[in-house]
Design goal:
CATH class: Mainly Beta
CATH architecture: Roll
Order of helices and strands: EEEEEEEEEH
Radius of gyration: 17 Å
CATH superfamily: YopX-like domains
Number of strands: 9
Shape: elongated
CATH topology: SH3 type barrels
Helix content: under 10%
Number of helices: 1
Largest sheet: 4 strands, antiparallel
Length: about 120
């Protein structure tokens, strides 16, 4: 059994930004947790996009739409959608396509929490 690294990302509450892997202490020297907005937490997929950017659940990705399985040309239209977990397949999918994707053909351009306008102007 291969275990993948478990990481998640979330949008923080107002205040100083933490560094990944750092332990923070309050003014009296006690360790404390960094608060995030729970609805913004997204699981790391274990995949990276074509630029090496980590892909998280809730990320918006830009890609050439080959949903019909046919590659026509490099002029294929570009589209964008959201990465989400699919419990039926046990993998991450691009929402509109409904099947597992190859991360190397995608580019992360934002996420649903910080850039929802990217989905309004799809394509």
């Amino acid at each position: 059994m291969v275990l993948r690294e478990r990481r998640s990302a979330g949008e923080g509450c107002p205040g100083p930004r933490p560094q990944e892997g750092a332990l923070y202490f309050n003014s009296v020297g006690m360790p404390f947790a960094y608060r995030v907005r729970p609805e913004t937490v997204g699981q790391y997929t274990g995949l990276k996009d074509k630029n090496g950017t980590e892909i998280y659940e809730g990320d918006i990705v830009h890609y050439k739409d080959y949903s019909n399985g046919v590659y026509l040309s490099d002029q294929q239209p570009m589209t964008r959608d959201v990465v989400k977990w699919n419990p039926d397949t046990g993998g991450y999918i691009v929402r509109s396509m409904g099947f597992t994707f190859k991360a190397k053909t995608y580019e992360v351009i934002g996420n649903i929490h910080q850039n929802p306008e990217l989905l309004e102007a799809k394509g």
